UniProtKB/TrEMBL annotation:
Domain of life the protein comes from: Eukaryota
Organism: Adineta steineri
Protein name according to UniProt: Uncharacterized protein
Length: 82
Protein backbone atom coordinates (compact mmCIF):
# COMPACT_ATOMS: atom_id res chain seq x y z
CA UNK A 1 0.00 0.00 0.00
CA UNK A 2 1.61 3.23 -1.18
CA UNK A 3 -0.60 5.72 0.64
CA UNK A 4 -2.82 4.47 3.40
CA UNK A 5 -6.48 5.42 3.49
CA UNK A 6 -5.81 7.31 6.73
CA UNK A 7 -3.60 9.71 4.73
CA UNK A 8 -6.42 10.62 2.32
CA UNK A 9 -8.50 13.54 3.59
CA UNK A 10 -11.04 13.69 0.78
CA UNK A 11 -11.74 11.93 -2.53
CA UNK A 12 -14.45 12.40 -5.13
CA UNK A 13 -15.40 12.22 -8.79
CA UNK A 14 -15.77 15.66 -10.38
CA UNK A 15 -16.79 17.13 -13.75
CA UNK A 16 -19.61 14.64 -14.38
CA UNK A 17 -17.31 11.79 -13.37
CA UNK A 18 -14.75 12.71 -16.02
CA UNK A 19 -12.08 13.31 -13.37
CA UNK A 20 -11.22 11.81 -10.00
CA UNK A 21 -9.50 13.83 -7.32
CA UNK A 22 -8.17 13.16 -3.86
CA UNK A 23 -6.58 15.37 -1.23
CA UNK A 24 -3.92 14.13 1.16
CA UNK A 25 -3.97 15.17 4.82
CA UNK A 26 -1.67 17.98 5.84
CA UNK A 27 1.36 18.88 3.77
CA UNK A 28 3.19 15.59 3.26
CA UNK A 29 5.68 16.97 0.71
CA UNK A 30 7.03 19.77 2.95
CA UNK A 31 9.24 17.54 5.09
CA UNK A 32 12.95 17.97 5.61
CA UNK A 33 15.83 15.54 6.11
CA UNK A 34 14.82 11.88 6.30
CA UNK A 35 11.13 12.82 6.20
CA UNK A 36 11.69 14.50 2.80
CA UNK A 37 13.37 11.36 1.44
CA UNK A 38 10.42 9.23 2.61
CA UNK A 39 7.97 11.66 0.95
CA UNK A 40 9.82 11.51 -2.35
CA UNK A 41 9.91 7.73 -2.29
CA UNK A 42 6.12 7.77 -1.77
CA UNK A 43 5.78 10.12 -4.75
CA UNK A 44 7.81 7.82 -6.99
CA UNK A 45 5.83 4.78 -5.82
CA UNK A 46 2.59 6.65 -6.49
CA UNK A 47 3.73 7.48 -10.05
CA UNK A 48 4.65 3.81 -10.59
CA UNK A 49 1.22 2.75 -9.32
CA UNK A 50 -0.59 5.09 -11.70
CA UNK A 51 1.59 3.88 -14.59
CA UNK A 52 0.77 0.24 -13.79
CA UNK A 53 -2.92 1.09 -14.31
CA UNK A 54 -2.27 2.82 -17.64
CA UNK A 55 -2.07 6.43 -16.44
CA UNK A 56 0.73 8.82 -17.37
CA UNK A 57 1.64 12.10 -15.68
CA UNK A 58 0.62 14.81 -18.14
CA UNK A 59 1.27 18.04 -16.21
CA UNK A 60 1.97 19.42 -12.75
CA UNK A 61 0.72 22.81 -11.62
CA UNK A 62 1.15 24.86 -8.44
CA UNK A 63 -2.27 26.40 -8.00
CA UNK A 64 -3.05 29.24 -5.60
CA UNK A 65 -6.36 28.87 -3.84
CA UNK A 66 -8.27 31.49 -1.91
CA UNK A 67 -7.20 34.78 -0.42
CA UNK A 68 -4.93 33.18 2.17
CA UNK A 69 -2.32 32.52 -0.53
CA UNK A 70 -2.20 28.78 0.08
CA UNK A 71 -0.83 26.68 -2.75
CA UNK A 72 -1.93 23.29 -3.97
CA UNK A 73 0.41 21.02 -5.90
CA UNK A 74 -1.77 19.45 -8.57
CA UNK A 75 -0.95 16.54 -10.85
CA UNK A 76 -2.89 15.87 -14.02
CA UNK A 77 -2.80 12.36 -15.48
CA UNK A 78 -4.07 11.04 -18.79
CA UNK A 79 -4.93 7.52 -19.80
CA UNK A 80 -2.43 5.96 -22.20
CA UNK A 81 -4.20 4.70 -25.32
CA UNK A 82 -3.03 1.21 -26.29
Amino acid sequence: QIIGTSEIQREEWVYSQAAYQFKLRGHPWLGSGEEAVTSRIKLLNLLDCFASYGWQLHATVDMSLGHDGSETDTWFFRRIQQ
